[in-house]
Amino acid sequence: MEPTIIYIITGAVALVAGIFGGKTFFAKNAGKHVQEAELAAQKLLAEAKLNADTYKKEREIEAKERFAQLKIDAEKDVMQRTQKISESENRIKQKEQSLNQKEANAEKQLKDNDVIKDNLNKQIEIVNTKRTELEKHQEEHIRKLEKVAGLSAEDAKAQLIEGMKQEAHSQALVLQQEIIENAKTNANKEARKIVIQTIQRTAAEQAIENSITVFNLESDEIKGSIIGREGRNIRAIEAATGVDLIVDDTPEAIVLSSFDPLRREIARLSLQRLVADGRIHPARIEEVVEKTRRQLDDQVMEIGERTAIELGVHGLHKELIRMIGRMRFRSSYGQNLLMHSRETANLCGIMAAELGMNPKLAKRAGLLHDIGKVPDEETELSHALLGAKLAEKYGENPAVVNAIGAHHDEMEMQFVISPIIQACDAISGARPGARREIMQQYIQRIKDLETLAASYQGVEKAYAIQAGRELRVIVESDKVTDAQSDTLSFDIAQKIQTEMTFPGQIKVTVIREKRAVNIAR
Fold first, then answer.
1. Residue 356: left (phi > 0), alpha (psi -120 to 50), or beta?
2. Half-sphere exposure of 229 (CA within 13 A, CB side)
3. Do 263 and 243 touch, CB atoms closer than 8 A?
4. Which contiguous run of DSSP H or E holds residue 254?
5. Which tens digit of pLDDT belongs to each residue from 399-440?
6. What mean pLDDT is predicted for residues 76-100?
7. End-to-end Cα distance, the chain
8. DSSP-derived 3-state class of residue 335
9. Smallest Cα–Cα separation from 240: which of 292, 285, 295?
10. What is the spatial distance between Cα 218 and Cα 240, in angstroms, rounded to a whole number?
11. Which of 362, 382, 361, 368 is nearest to 326 (CA)?
């Protein structure tokens, strides 16, 4: 703390003490303290004045120094700005010089272009003059040629064009014929090669089913329970399943007879459960048959899903999957329909891969090509057309729909995959061991086909080929015309369709040819 402030405080304390110390003390020391306080106050004022002057000088010095520093900074800033302005002015001057130079060059180039343009115009005039002279010489030359040849230019041009056209047409016909012959030769070789490779790469099963199922029993005593009192149990089973039960002298066996394998399977499973349960009466029979039918429906869906997964066919509609499962319980001439469809699908996939096509699409069409044989309701449509309709209904690819409908030539083939399905269907159905047919019936059917064709007037020979799937009829050319050949083919096909029973379809081909034979000696 400064001495001046201490003196002031001391004086103030003394003054207060004097006031509160009593009159005697005040009387003795008041004058003395007042003088000291006045001296202290004067001293304090002198020191304050001195300090104020000192502080004022210090502030003035600081202000002058600050002003000098600001002045230096301002001058430095001004110098920097001046330098930047100078640099900008230099750049502007350089740009102005460059623009002036470019402007001068552009003016010079324009002058040069004008000169070049004048030269070009002069050259064009010279060329036009020469062209006119050349046209005059050409016309004069053509008139001289016409006078010598006796033909006008248009006539000569027409004759030349016609000659070249005929020559080109002849060469094109020869080339076309060569290409066609080569294509036929190579196509037949490649087709045979692909079909052989496809058959060799497919492991076929000889899937033969009968129209009956034998249900084995533990003992003949169970036959009485199955027949029931006055035959009521066996009648209830036949009514519920639609299968004929044949109970004869065959030991420990009952024969289930039905053309529908699905019904036979329901009857077999129902009998198995009834015999195991021991309670056999009409009410129980109806309950077990209904339960078995529901479980078999689930099994049908499972078979369809498993088949689609094994073949790699995905995204099928549930109804199509159910139809695929139902194929397991259908057969055609002893060949199981599901095994035939699986075999056809594998053949189609292999053949499509050999031809560089989409094997998955081919497999899909091969698997679904016979779904028209397992409809929910009977219809007058053929199984190929019905299958195409069902496939279209459930959103299948147009190529698959066309392949299903055209695999028996009942629909026009619009996609390359269609003939592949047809060929693979024929391979699977016609291979040895695929279908069962009694030899005598087969031979008799072949004879009936040839006899039926030979009964028409003008038929020279008739041959049933491809296991009876095609009938080739050779007619006498002097008795049957081309138009009559078409009619004859249609009539024979209609008669076969109405009078004979046959699997699949039969193609009738009428061949008419005229041969002129001479011998050079």
1. left
2. 2
3. yes
4. strand 253-257
5. 999 999 988 888 888 888 888 888 888 877 765 555 555 456
6. 89
7. 162
8. strand
9. 285
10. 24
11. 368
d(CA 91, CA 115): 36
Strand partners, 507: 470
**Residue corresponding to tokens 């029931």:** 228
Rounded Cα–Cα distance for residues 28 and 113 (Å): 125
Nearest to 470 by CA among 444, 418, 434, 508: 508
Residue count of the chain? 521
Cα distance between residue 427 and residue 404, in whole Å: 16
Strand bridging mode 335-336 / 331-332: antiparallel
User: Rg of the chain's alpha carbons, rounded to an integer?
Assistant: 59
Tell me the pLDDT tens digit for each residue of 470-494: 889 999 888 888 888 888 999 998 8
Average pLDDT over residues 432-452: 70
AA letter at 420? I
Distances 492 to 123, 372, 478, 485 between C-alpha atoms, Å: 85, 27, 20, 11
- Contact yes or no for 220/251 (Cβ under 8 A): yes
Question: What is d(CA 420, CA 352) in angstroms, rounded to the nearest whole number?
Answer: 7
**Structure token pair of residue 366:** 């091969």
In sequence order, what E strands does 127-220 have?
A: 212-216
Q: What does the pLDDT average to over 118-129?
A: 88
How deeply is 100 buried, as exposed, middle or buried, from its count of CB atoms within 10 A (0-12, 13-18, 19+)?
exposed
CA atoms within 13 A on the CB side of 342: 24
pLDDT at 295: 85
Ramachandran quadrant class, 467 (left: phi over 0; alpha: psi -120 to 50; beta: rest): left
Cβ neighbours of residue 317 closer than 8 Å, sequence gap 6 or more? 394, 395
Q: Where are the alpha helices (DSSP H) in 369-481?
A: 383-393, 398-406, 417-430, 439-454
Q: Which residues contact 467 (CB under 8 A, 6 or more apart)?
A: 430, 442
Place of tokens 């021991």: 278
Q: Please, what is the average pLDDT of the chain?
A: 80
pTM, two decimals, is 0.47
At 462, which amino acid appears?
A
- The closest alpha carbon to 414, from 374, 371, 365, 372, belongs to 365
